[in-house]
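User: quick one, fold this
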Amino acid sequence: MDLDLDERTRQFRDEVASWLAANVPDKPMDSFDSAAGFAQHREWEAQLADARLSAVSWPEEFGGRDCSLLEWVIFEEEYYAAGAPLRVNQNGIFMLAPTLFSHGTPEQRRRILPKMARSEEVWAQAWSEPEAGSDIAALRSTATRTDGGWLLSGQKTWSSRAAFADKAFGLFRSDPDSDISPAAHPPRTPPKDRHRGMTYLMFDLHADGVRVRPIEQLDGEPGFAEIFLDNVFVPDADVIGEPGGGWRVAMTTANNERGLSLRSPGRFLAAADRLLELWRRDGDPADTALASRVADAWIGARAYQLYTFGTVTRLADGGELGPESSVNKLFWSRLDVELHETALDVLGAQGELRGEWLDGWLFSLSGPIYGGTDQIQRTTVAERLLGLPRGAR
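Assistant:
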């Protein structure tokens, strides 16, 4: 692709940079893993929406600007460079919204997206279960047919933002014959296709039969929650895609999480630039090995930027996000860890006193886990991209 930006894109970049310079809060907000911080971030999202900067690539009718994917990447670069607040509704804007654009109905998009853009409704992801973490196909929560909709029962865990969110989306087993649990199938007689018989549904976290139990992190804040469902009614209008075809819909969500929207290059470009400033100020020029690690982190962030430009070009030409997103996820998850470890090594004993780098490092450790563990991603790359045979089960 041509890396020289046209006049429209340059003007857009300048507009975004100017707005952020005038509006990004001078002091960091409270963590959105706290009730007070969650409310602050929700207000920030409304402010972004007033400027039509909450979801710039969406159509105008839903609160966007009809921007190209390239312009969205540019927006993200400026957003992180300005040190703007983290996006409290990232599960909705960056994961559910692309799924609705691909598989949702016009009615669902009209009903859900404008409120999502303003964070009047904040979304949680309800995928993982106690017996189904990275292996989502092993889930056992059920969706049972009833008049006008479905009854949801089961348990979800590690649900991001669920402690304070309004709505959630997730997969549920709607065909009992597809249950892969030992109780449902005697040994050596598993179902032929463990990915069939699941339905992708949205539900209200305040509905009758829903109980949300926050999970405290090491810092005491509930960044996650367990969700317990007991015959929770969900209307047919809140099914995304076809009943029983939820796995295909879920792969759209997962590919966006791993491959483009959730982790844009702007996040890592800004961190790499901060690392370079840190090295210039506090680094030991005689430590050539550490200097090389700083350089590698900076190069890695730029490499990811160029790779993303290639993805954007492919999508603009009619391509789709596929198993290649696993390569993407493997790269950025390791880059994030290595970049922050390098920063802490530059700081030495002072690292424990520099909260922004220590907090960033602690969060980076989750990157090889969420969105499908790195081990799962390597299996996907081996089987679906390299055509290698399956290993012994």
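User: anything notable?
Assistant: The CA atoms of residues 89 and 122 lie 5 Å apart.
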